[in-house]
Structures are given as structure tokens and as C-alpha cells.
TrEMBL record:
Source species: Candidatus Phycosocius bacilliformis
EC class: transferase
PANTHER family on file: TRNA DIMETHYLALLYLTRANSFERASE
Catalytic activity as recorded in UniProt: adenosine(37) in tRNA + dimethylallyl diphosphate = N(6)-dimethylallyladenosine(37) in tRNA + diphosphate
Name of one Pfam family that matches: IPPT
Residues flagged as site, Interaction with substrate tRNA: T100, R122
Keywords of this entry: ATP-binding, Magnesium, Nucleotide-binding, Transferase, tRNA processing
Claim: Mitochondrion is one of the keywords in the record: no
Protein name (record): tRNA dimethylallyltransferase
InterPro entries linked to this entry: Dimethylallyltransferase (IPR039657), IPT (IPR018022), P-loop_NTPase (IPR027417)
Stretches for region Interaction with substrate tRNA: 34-37
Cofactor(s) this protein requires: Mg(2+)
Methyltransferase recorded as keyword: no
Functional note: Catalyzes the transfer of a dimethylallyl group onto the adenine at position 37 in tRNAs that read codons beginning with uridine, leading to the formation of N6-(dimethylallyl)adenosine (i(6)A).
Length: 289
């Protein structure tokens, strides 16, 4: 049975090309491990593989979820498990690639079971976090100091998740983390690779790539999604680039400002990804790119 290969890296680090090369070399099939590339509405802004790249090797779980849905880590894990088993049954190697460390962690370390959060609790919590992220992080320090140490004060998505679990259950997210389910990929049954570019090189790539996205349909794609009138708290509406472009569509800032903000947001995201890899994937093989 072919050993799954997991490829992590920050945005704009060349993961797609590396994964396709690995799939060709190892008779593999590529499985998406990025939480935004699952959404059908955003192809350009999430840097999903294009038609030529999709034709170079079999790909799975890219653009298969409508933006109106919230695709949980548990849902991704179930789909990924099915894809891995099907690929192995064909005698081929699963190549999982993406920048979502939580997916890789759930796959190799186990998923922490948490109860569903009522929609009204989730919406209220995310509004509060969006209004004052630092105050929300300060509150998190009071109710879940362990989570507050793990989560950066600017990481609104993870702060909101920790707070909404507490609001819904009265139990901190860190307490829930003490009871993980066993991993789908046991130790010794998979290989992990982390692509790690130099920061200055990566930042230059991010800027050039986002500007190219604006020239190749990214702006129009974002506007089509905006015109759907979806709940602003949905994950797809918070994809890197969308918040700044929404401000542009609603007349609060100019396009140049929206692009500059999106590039800055991408840099912050990449920094968080690299920090996660250094801290949580320290035993993976690191490849400078």
C-alpha cells in the first residue's frame, strides 16, 4: 500500500507545482489540504490549480463545496479519508497538499471532537471578535489561558472559534482538546514535507501573485461572490483578499487600497503558517524553496 505524502507550506511557496511533480514521479493523485480551495466560488483568489495543472495529474476535493456552506474540519477529514483509501486501492500514492495546518494535524494527530455551535451563538461571537479582536483575545485569556497562548491576538478566526465553543458548551476549547480521536494516519504510515522559502522572497512572490490575480479574473470572481449576498461570517467571505475587496465594492476604500490591504493580509497569513509549521511540524522534512 502506497504511503501518503503530505506537503505543507505557506501561501505562494510553490506547493501546487511541487505536488504535481511528486504525483508524476510517484504515480500519485493529489488531494486538497487547503481550507479555502475547497470552495467552488473562489478559484483565482485561492490559487486553486488551473486547467493545465489539473490535467497534469488526478486531483481531488478542489472546488467541490458551495460558498454558502461551512465546511468543517471533520467534514474534510471524512472526505480525505475516503479519497486516501480510494487512491491506495488503485495502487497509487495519495499526495495531500495545502496550507491548512489544522487539516494536517487532524489527519496525523487526531481530531478533537467538539459539539456543534448554534448559529446564533456563532454569529454573535464572530461579530464581537470582528468589532474588537484584541478585547476578544483578552477575554480568551480569562476563560482559556492555554488557547490564548497558542492563538495570536490578530487571529480573529481562531479566537472566535475558541470563544464560541466556550459560549455554547461552558467548556473551554483546551479542555475539549484533551480528548482527541485517534488519527487516520498513524505514526510511521505517512511522510511529511514542509516547503519553507525565505521570508523576503516569499513576500515578493505574494505581492506579484496577488497583482496577477487582479489581472486574471480575481476581481471579477470576488465581485460575483459578493453579489450572492452571503452571510459575511461564512468562511468563504473571509478568504484572504475578500475583506479588502468587499470594502472596495462597498465604497469604503479605493481599489489600490484594497489590493494593498489584501497583500498585507496575505503576508500576515503566510507568517502565521510558517510559525505553525515551525512549532507543530518540527519533525517534518523541510525543503527550502
Amino acid at each position: 500500500m502506497q504511503t501518503p505524502l503530505l506537503i505543507l507550506g505557506p501561501t505562494a511557496s510553490g506547493k501546487t507545482a511541487y505536488a504535481i511533480g511528486a504525483a508524476i514521479k510517484h504515480n500519485g493523485e493529489v488531494v486538497n489540504m487547503d481550507s479555502m480551495q475547497v470552495y467552488r466560488d473562489l478559484s483565482v483568489l485561492t490559487a486553486r490549480p488551473d486547467a493545465q495543472e489539473l490535467a497534469a495529474a488526478p486531483h481531488h476535493m478542489f472546488g467541490h463545496i458551495d460558498g454558502a456552506e461551512t465546511y468543517s474540519t471533520g467534514s474534510w477529514l471524512a472526505d480525505a479519508q475516503a479519497a486516501i483509501h480510494a487512491i491506495q486501492a488503485r495502487g497509487r500514492r495519495p499526495i495531500l497538499v495545502g496550507g491548512t495546518g489544522l487539516y494536517a494535524h487532524a489527519l496525523t494527530q487526531g481530531l478533537v471532537p467538539t459539539p456543534p455551535v448554534p448559529a446564533d451563538v456563532r454569529a454573535a461571537t464572530r461579530r464581537a471578535v470582528g468589532a474588537d479582536t484584541r478585547a476578544a483575545h483578552a477575554r480568551l485569556k480569562q476563560i482559556d489561558p492555554e488557547a490564548a497562548r497558542r492563538i495570536e491576538p490578530r487571529d480573529a478566526v481562531r479566537i472566535a472559534r475558541a470563544l464560541e465553543v466556550f459560549e455554547a458548551t461552558g467548556r473551554s476549547l483546551s479542555d475539549w482538546h484533551k480528548d482527541p480521536q485517534p488519527p487516520i494516519l498513524a505514526p510511521g504510515t505517512w511522510e511529511g514535507i514542509a516547503l519553507m522559502p525565505e521570508r523576503d522572497v516569499l513576500y515578493a512572490r505574494i505581492e506579484a501573485r496577488f497583482e496577477k490575480m487582479m489581472e486574471t479574473g480575481g476581481l471579477e470572481e470576488a465581485h460575483r461572490l459578493y453579489e450572492r449576498g452571503l452571510d459575511p461570517d461564512l468562511p468563504v467571505m473571509k478568504a484572504v483578499g475578500m475583506p479588502g475587496l468587499i470594502d472596495f465594492f462597498e465604497g469604503r476604500i479605493g481599489l489600490d487600497q484594497a489590493v494593498a490591504r489584501s497583500i498585507l493580509d496575505s503576508r500576515h497569513y503566510a507568517k502565521r503558517q510558517m510559525t505553525w509549521i515551525r512549532n507543530r511540524a518540527a519533525d517534518w522534512k523541510v525543503i527550502p524553496v
